[in-house]
Amino acid sequence: MAAHEPFDFSGRVAWVTGASRGIGAAIASLFAAHGARVVGFDLFASPAMEEVCHRAIALDVSSFAAVEEAVAPLLQSKLVPDVLVNNAGIARDRVLWKMTELEWDQVLDVNLKGAFNLMRHTVAAMRATGRGGSVINVASINGLRGKFGQTNYSASKAGLIGLTKAAAREVGRDGIRVNAVAPGMVMTDMTLNVPLEARQAALAESLLGKLAHADDVANAVLFLASSMAGHITGQVVQVDGGQCL
Ligand SMILES: NC(=O)c1ccc[n+]([C@@H]2O[C@H](COP(=O)([O-])OP(=O)(O)OC[C@H]3O[C@@H](n4cnc5c(N)ncnc54)[C@H](O)[C@@H]3O)[C@@H](O)[C@H]2O)c1
Q1: How confident is the model over 126-153, as pLDDT tens digits?
Q2: What distance in angstroms lies between residue 130's CA and the mean position of ligand 1's atoms?
Q3: Which of 136, 153, 183, 238 is catalytic?
Q4: Atom of ligand 1 nearest to the CA of 185
Q5: Over 90: is that where the pLDDT of 167 sits?
Q6: pLDDT tens figures, 203-242
Q7: Has 54 been annotated as catalytic?
Q8: Which residues make beta-bridge pairs with 178?
Q9: Residues with CB under 6 A from ligand 1
């Protein structure tokens, strides 16, 4: 008898937000390479996202109404997700005593409310399929430990971890697992403008002496979505080379 291939996602549908570039693009292409039909969402669909994804959809995940509108036809056309990856995220760094209301609201709206919006509008359909499924939220080690200059970002990612755990309790009996990954520093567009000293500090913290590549995070997401992680739910998997220990 052929061995069961846990990373074969043929016939399955994976939704990935923030799929145009960076970690989201790596996740989308990894799921596509493993046979999934990927639905990618981003503010703008990049050519890479168009190429990799079965459907590439321009969407602002922070809008409850826009997410509801974008999701409805997908659910009706048999593209109910088996895997939902809430990856879209932004940073607007500033020390607390100078942070503007807009910087606070934007980060919370994309990073935390965005994940809520996607989960809110898809989980009922996922439950109704009876197939179970997997939700993976891309948090951050800075949601676990807090980070200077990132009260908004750290709060959004800590909130995302709370959302992950509470949702895992609500949908576990439907066979839907909800987990988070918490990357350390990954060199993407998001971190291009991080000061050199901060990059060096992250590197010094890394027990492996290197920073993550987007593919390292994508691999952890694929694992959590796979049957190999079939008894894992409500967890936060750090992908940080031991940066936050
Ligand atoms: N890069 C890092 O060091 C790092 C570390 C820990 C966690 N993360 C998290 O990983 C995720 C991906 O980060 P990245 O480094 O690839 O960043 P990135 O800036 O390269 O990519 C983020 C993507 O999200 C999209 N996006 C932003 N706002 C959106 C919105 N309102 N609606 C839809 N899409 C939107 C962007 O257009 C972009 O394509 C984020 O949630 C980030 O917080 C990143």
Answers
A1: 999 999 999 999 999 999 999 999 999 9
A2: 31
A3: 153
A4: 3
A5: yes
A6: 999 999 999 999 999 999 999 999 999 999 999 999 999 9
A7: no
A8: 135
A9: 17-18, 20-24, 41-43, 59-62, 87-90, 110, 138, 140, 183, 185-186, 188-191
Chain-centroid distance of CA 156 in Å reads: 13
Query: What does DSSP assign to residue 212?
Result: B
Which residues neighbour 97 within 8 Å (Cβ) at sequence distance 6 or greater? none
Residue 236 host element (H or E): strand 236-239
Sole residue written with tokens 């969407």: 59
The predicted model scores a pTM of: 0.98
Burial of 126 (0-12, 13-18, 19+ CB in 10 A): buried
Domain boundaries, the chain: 13-238
β-strand partners of 57:
41
What's the CATH architecture for 13-238? 3-Layer(aba) Sandwich (3.40)
Strand partners for 238: 182
> Which atom of ligand 1 sits closest to the CA of residue 18?
24
Residue to probe by mutation, ligand 1, list 188, 191, 215, 216, most atoms within 8 Å of CB: 188
